[in-house]
Structures are given as C-alpha cells and as structure tokens.
Amino acid sequence: KETYREISVAEFFAKNRELAGFSNPTRALYQTVRELVENALDATDTHSILPVISIRIAYDDELEAKYGNPRKWFRITVEDNGIGVPPTVIANAFGRVLFSSKYVIRQTRGMYGLGVKAAVLYGQMTAGRPVEVVSSMQESDYVYLRRLYIDVSKNEPKIVEKGQWRKKGRWHGTRVTITLEGDWPRARSRIIEYIKRTAVIAPYAEIYFETPDGEIYVFPRLTSKMPAPPKEAKPHPHGIDLDQMKMLIKRSNARTLLQLLSNELQSVGTIMARKFLEEIGLDPNMNPKKLDNDSLVKLVDSMKSYRFRAPKSDHLSPIGEELIKIGLKRMFKPEWVDALTRPPRAYQGHSFIVEVGIAYGGGIEARNEPLLLRYANKIPLLYEEREDVTYKVVSGINWKIYRVDFPAPLVVLVHIASTKIPYKGVGKESISEVPEIESEIRIAVQHVARKLRVYLGKKAREAEARRK
Amino acid sequence: KETYREISVAEFFAKNRELAGFSNPTRALYQTVRELVENALDATDTHSILPVISIRIAYDDELEAKYGNPRKWFRITVEDNGIGVPPTVIANAFGRVLFSSKYVIRQTRGMYGLGVKAAVLYGQMTAGRPVEVVSSMQESDYVYLRRLYIDVSKNEPKIVEKGQWRKKGRWHGTRVTITLEGDWPRARSRIIEYIKRTAVIAPYAEIYFETPDGEIYVFPRLTSKMPAPPKEAKPHPHGIDLDQMKMLIKRSNARTLLQLLSNELQSVGTIMARKFLEEIGLDPNMNPKKLDNDSLVKLVDSMKSYRFRAPKSDHLSPIGEELIKIGLKRMFKPEWVDALTRPPRAYQGHSFIVEVGIAYGGGIEARNEPLLLRYANKIPLLYEEREDVTYKVVSGINWKIYRVDFPAPLVVLVHIASTKIPYKGVGKESISEVPEIESEIRIAVQHVARKLRVYLGKKAREAEARRK
Ligand SMILES: Nc1ncnc2c1ncn2[C@@H]1O[C@H](COP(=O)(O)OP(=O)(O)OP(=O)(O)O)[C@@H](O)[C@H]1O
Ligand SMILES: Nc1ncnc2c1ncn2[C@@H]1O[C@H](COP(=O)(O)OP(=O)(O)OP(=O)(O)O)[C@@H](O)[C@H]1O
Ligand SMILES: [Mg+2]
Ligand SMILES: [Mg+2]
C-alpha cells in the first residue's frame, strides 16, 4: 500500500525549490542573480583577482514569441574575470547537485554545492532551456563552451552542446547564461539593492548591471586595495565529529595518535596533545588506525570540551574598517561614520569575525528604526530580516542611550565572516542565533555606538553654544 | 588549486545538520523525539489505526560508564502500533537519506525522506551507536530486528545486526531506538510541551511518555472518533512543472494528449481539457509522447494560469471543529471555546485547509499577547515562531476590536493541512508567507474572534446588569 522509493538530491531540490529561495518567479529572478554573482566574486576576490563583473538581465524575445505570456521570460548573464572552470569539470560544476570546490574549511560565499544548480533547475523547469557556460582558465589557450541540462532523476549533467576555440588575447573567467521565468517589476528593487550593497563593501570591484528596460548601473573601482584572500584551515578539535575523525585517520599518514592530532588539526601543539591524550587515557604513541569505536567516540567527545587554543584566524578575510567606511560614505554621504573589526572568536570549532559600521546623518533619510545592512561572508542579505540574529541584536538595543532618537538618520552595517556561516536555510537569507555570534555582534555595535554618542554629544553642545 | 568534489546527500546533511534542526544537543534531543513521533503517527492515523504511542527517554548508563560526561548520553525509544515497515525496506527507510513512502501527493506529517535519518546520523556522530529498529506488519507472522549505521560517504545503510522471530500474539508496529548526546534539562520543557500539544489535537490517540528522571505522562484516549484518513491525490494542473510533466507522460499509457490530461490530473474534465488544448493550439488527439520540448513548455506554462477548477480536497484530513474544541477544553479548561474549519483552497496547485480554534478565560493565564498554538499537518510547531506566517497574522490583529484587552487569557490554535506544507526549512519549524495561506488564516481567525466578541459583549452586559 505504501510505495517506498528513493529520489536523487536533484529531484529533492526540484520538488522543494522554495527551500533554496526559488518559491516564485520574483524570488527566483533575485536568487538566480545572487547565485551567479556570488560564484563570480568567489572566483575573483578569493583568488586575489580584482573583480570585473557584468550582470545583464534581458527579456527573452524568442521565448515570448514561442510561448506568449510577454514580459515573463528572461535571460540572465553574469560574466567575471575569475579563475575559470576546468573544461573537465564544467559539466559537474553546473549540472550535478552537491558538487563544489568549496567543501573545504575556508571563508567563501559558496558552501553548499547547490546554488547555481538550483538556478539551472528552475530555468529548465520553467523555460525548458539549458544553462550555457563559457569559461577559460588563466593559463589556458582555449575557451570552452557547454550547454547542458540536469538529468533530475540521476542528478547528472546532460550536455546538449559543446565547443572550444583558441583564445585571442588573454581573457580568463566565466560567463554563465540562465533562461527562466521571472517577474522583473516585482524583483527589480531588491535586485538593484542587492547589487548596490555588494558594491558598497567591494569598492575594489568593477560592476556593470544592465536591466531588461535598458537601464545601466555602473559601480567603478574606487581602490585597488583588496582584503587579503582567505586561506584554507585545518579542522579545529572543537568542531570535529566522529565521521570526520574517521575520515581524517583514514587519509592521514601520521604514524602515532600524537602526530595525527598535532599535524591534522589546528591549534593543537604536541605538548598539549600529549597532555590531553594522557588525561583521557589514550596512548600517544599508538597507531591511530587501531583505535576502536569506543575509543574514537571518547576521543572526539573529550576533544569537544578540552581547553585547546581558539582557532587561528589568519585564514579569515574581513572587509576591514577602511573599506567599510569608504563603502558607507559612497552609498550614503553621511555626516559621520565609523567602523570596527572585532578580533576572531569561535563557535563549535569554526572561527568567525564580526565587523560593524555605523553611519549617521548627512544624506541618510530619517527612519523609525536603524536601516540595517546585513552581510555574511561578504554577501548582502536582504530577506528574512526579522529572523536574523543581527536584527535581534540591533533592534534590541536602546538607542536613546547613544543619543539617537527615532525617527533618526541611522545606518548600521554588520558583517560576519566565518569558515562556516550558520545560515537558517540553504537559501542563505538569515543567520541563526548562535550565542557566541550574538554576543560578538552586541559588543561590536555598542562599541561603535559609543563613538557615535561622543559625536552627537559634541554636536549637541556646539548647537547649544551657537544658540547662546 | 581548487579541489572539486561531489558529496553524498548524507554527508551534506551531516555537515549541515543545523539545517535539519540538530544544531546542538538540546535541539537534537527535541528533534529526535519529533522525528520518531511524527513517523509513528503517520504509521497509524494515516492508516485508520487508533494510535498507541509510547515514548521513552532514558540516560544511557553504559555510555556514561564508557565515556564519562554524566547526564549527556541518552537512549530514545518510540514504539507504535502502526503498519510496520517491510523487512526488505527497513535498512533503506532508516539508513538512506531521501528514501521515503511519502513522496506522493497526500497529506502526511513526513514529506522529505530525511527526518529519521538526520536523527540516526546525529546519534552515530555523537554517541557512535547504531539505530535499532524492531518492526512487524499486521499480516506478517514475524518480527524483524535491524541495527544499522549510515555509510555517510555512500548514503547507504550498513547493517551490523539482523534478526527475526515468530510473532507470539498479534502485535504490529515499529519500535525505534536512537542513542545520542543530548541535554535533558534544557530540552525538557519543549519536549513535554510538544507531546502535550500533539495529544491536544489527537484525543483519539493513547500516548505514554517516560522521562530520564522517571516521570511518567499519560494521555489516555478520549474518543474513538478519528478524522477520515487523507487520500492520495493526482497532480493539479496549476502545480505541475516541466520535469514532472515529462515523468507523467513517460509513465502514462494514455494514447492521446486529451486522455493524458483528463486521466492523470485532478480537476481536469475532458470537455475543459479539449477547450484548453484548442485554445493553446495543441491537437487533443496527438500522442503525448510525441510532444517536442517547446510544445511541452507551452503546455505546462499555459496550464499554470488556465482557469481549471480548484483542487478537490476530499483527500485532505483536517482535525475538525469538534476535536479542536475537545482538545482545547482538555488542555486549558477555558470558560469559552469555539473553532472553525475553512473550506479547501489552493496555492500553486496544492490544496490546503485552514482551521482555527480560540479559547478564552477559565484556566488560561493572562498574558501580554495571545498564546499561539501552531500546527501543520497535525504537527505542533514550537520554534521559530516570529518567522511563521501564522504569527504574522495573529500578532497583526487588533484584538481590541474583539473586546480582548491585554493582558488577557487568550489561546489561538491554528492548523494548516495540505498536500504540501510550505515550510521555511527542512527542520519544519515555521511556515512561509504564501499569500493564499496568509489570507485564509486571517479570515478564519477573524471569524472565530467575532464569536468571542459576542460572548465577551454578553459577559460584559451581564456584569453591568449585576452591578446595578
Ligand atoms: N563563475 C565561476 N567561476 C569559477 N568557478 C565557478 C563559477 N561558478 C561556479 N563555479 C564552480 O562551480 C561550483 C559549484 O557552484 P555552486 O554555486 O553550485 O556551489 P558553491 O558555490 O560551491 O556553493 P553554494 O551552493 O553555497 O553556492 C563552485 O564550487 C565552483 O567551483
Ligand atoms: N514508525 C514507523 N512506522 C512505519 N514506517 C516508518 C516508521 N518510521 C519511518 N517509517 C518509514 O520510513 C520512511 C522514512 O522516514 P523519514 O522520517 O526519514 O522520512 P519521511 O517521514 O518520509 O519524511 P520526513 O523527512 O519529512 O520525516 C517513511 O517514509 C516511512 O515509510
Ligand atoms: Mg555558489
Ligand atoms: Mg519522518
């Protein structure tokens, strides 16, 4: 009576595409722009390339002619000057759900191996069109073209066209075109806002955006100074679980348990490792591959609560106080601005850094609450604001004590950089209430708010003095 | 430089277990109870079996002795008298992520094929213990036992122990035991509340719950009257996408396009189907397997906006006004209670029914806002309240116009039954703001609130009369 079956992960995200942010044509248009732009930025600034990104959304006249229903078929093209995609990998990167180069411990915008595939699925399910990818790597003499669908039941790419040609000149990067059903009038303001907020914190990037109505937005490069790119990190003992530990032991050629811990994990020196192992009754000189299940559980469980040093954070790539201030000035022309980058912290073995920028007055319009600009790993988050831990903190602050009386012209920017952002969903719109992160955001906002209070106090006294 | 790889869906949900509700030992304990109880209820009331469910959470003394760290190792056992799991299916049902009997169009609590596997993964990654399943189907003479792990990299079950024995007596059902790290003191109140709220709307179920401290909660059966079980439905033309349509055509033996639409879809009669096909320029007599890609896109796209009848809803299984009132009376002993089950509606081709119950006064304590009891497909939702569409509606109501002045003793119960609940995440804690659903909730709450107003008006006049 019950029909038992297995489905592929492509079918899972096709059926439940609202989980990935594709709940309707308006959100789908927005999410597709996001997934493509975030991949383009990961392919550039993560690799010390000054980004040049062009985004074009156009009405697809051919589909309009075929299917009728004018103004709802779109072709989105995003091109970057990034590292490109190897020709042998293009099909899987764009046609296999859960295929990614970001499954390592490193701060990138992408993390799930799903983003662009969710957009490809939506395009093929609404417009019946394949994705088109054109790519060339820096050192390569060739440019490669692939048009493909996703075979949903098998979760495999189905290439319907391929090509390659010799490169003239030295272009490198990737150009992705997705055709889909969308709703430009409804999505327009959020898409423009998303691109603006991306440019605000990336003044080292050059961004071109062309809309279906032919409007062109240009965000020229303001500085060649880029934040140091993030680096890959080893797992931290507080964040490793049993299956990961088994993987680590399998792949490692460490000959003793002591070597395994001090070589394969970060923040674990040989002295501390020895002390720890002796405390939990395991022999530091034993062959780690000989650990039985119960000893493994004991090892991993004890590691989680042992006082190893906090994760190093030289691997993280914050925006930096300078760039935050430049960006806020460019966007708002405020009368006052300041920013703070906090020192690194950790939650569940993942390092993170909180940064806050506050801007006041000048060109900012007065509102009944702070205008909150949320960022996670340099991605602007525009939806699901009420559920975000950042909103919880910022709206929970009593701004009166900082001399801010609403309605007031106040902008608060919060950025969280981490090797693992604890999003609430795969659509990456809001961040969970992780206690360590919540407390860091509060400390950072209060710190910068106190500086605002000094300025507003001074301004009030000057106004008072002038009146006398 | 970039390492490209694929991961299995088991590895995806192991790495990102917070997406499924397993963010920490407190949430994990709660979520494991939920996943097991929801499966137990799906195996009983969905099949017209009066549920007898027993839930036991116990400290695992053996693990405490092995690993130390007292009071954090738990064994959760849930047993039901349901339809059981066929012996050839047990391993996949509990050991393969995205394996389910609920991938059909039918109102059930489960829908993703992930729930119990997420709990199994958490148990094996923290306590290093396999899940144990004991099951027997009604017509079978045997009881089957399986202990298994999930092979994370392959997304396959790994059976470590199997057994079977002849049934004495006529027991049928399933007993699942998961061993895991948890935090009972922090999870206790939510788990108890979850079980209470489950019992509130299922007075036909017998539920036993034993806590690690030996407390026993019993919810006896109050009535043998069960709601009619939900039925499987055919897809509705407004909710079918291109890949689903291709699947339908492949599996169907309809010889003409007209037959395909009127046989394979709900709410499409032959007259309407013919009219529709002629309007969009497709031949009703053509072989559906001969449709080219562009005609398919045109067919599916046009279907989405054509005025087919709303989905039938005899397949849905609401709680019903009687059971809602019985449940609210049992839980709160209010002075007034009423309920309403709305007629069926649809969003994106999925039928749904909204039900509301309101209770006032009596044993209800006065609060500063309504106590909101949210339910989706008979599952109580306890977390992420602020993000839920139901909260948005209920907190947006001006209760003064219904004579409710806060602090006030007011309980509002909202149930949404659907063939597809639009959850915000796979952890099933809150429902997205789908416009059709939001508007139905508002209409239903206002309707019952008006009846409350009549009662409170009468009560006020009587109090006034007594004073004179
Ligand atoms: N523009 C691009 N340039 C270079 N590589 C790219 C580009 N777009 C995608 N890729 C490659 O394809 C992979 C898959 O992209 P996809 O968006 O599906 O997942 P992801 O970015 O790794 O994670 P997420 O699901 O969080 O976005 C990336 O990991 C990257 O290796
Ligand atoms: N107690 C049970 N009695 C009978 N069958 C069960 C029981 N528990 C699980 N199953 C079977 O195992 C399958 C997998 O369960 P699982 O919880 O992983 O997914 P689901 O319930 O289908 O969906 P969801 O992820 O939304 O919970 C179910 O679809 C059901 O067929
Ligand atoms: Mg991506
Ligand atoms: Mg389930």
State the assembly state of the protein chains.
homodimer
By DSSP (H or I, 4+ residues per run), the number of helices of chain A equals 13
List cofactors, ions and other ligands.
adenosine-5'-triphosphate, magnesium ion
Beta-strand proportion of chain A: 15-25%
Radius of gyration of chain A: 25 Å
The low-pLDDT segments of chain A are none
Largest sheet of chain A: 8 strands, mixed
Class by helix and strand content of chain A? alpha+beta
Distance between the first and last residues' Cα of chain A: 88 Å
Spatial arrangement of strands, main beta sheet of chain A: 7-6-5-8-3-2-9-10
Largest interface, counted by CB within 8 Å of the partner chain's CB: A-B, 61 and 61 residues
Q: Can you tell me the overall shape of chain A?
A: globular
Give me the count of strands of chain A: 16
Indicate the mean pLDDT of chain A: 96
Describe this entry's structure for a reader:
The structure is a homodimer of 468-residue chains. The first copy, chain A, has 468 residues and is α+β, with helices and mostly antiparallel strands. Helix content of chain A is 34%, strand content 22%. The first copy, chain A, is built from 13 helices and 16 strands. In chain A, strands 7-6-5-8-3-2-9-10 form an eight-stranded mixed sheet, sandwiched between helices. Chain A is globular. In chain A, 52% of the residues are buried. At the A-B interface, strand 1, helix 1, strand 4, helix 5 and helix 10 of A face strand 1, helix 1, strand 4, helix 5 and helix 10 of B. Strand 1 of chain A pairs antiparallel with strand 4 (99-100) of chain B. Bound molecules: adenosine-5'-triphosphate (2 copies) and magnesium ion (2 copies). One magnesium ion binds at residues 35, 38-39, 110, 115-116 of chain B.
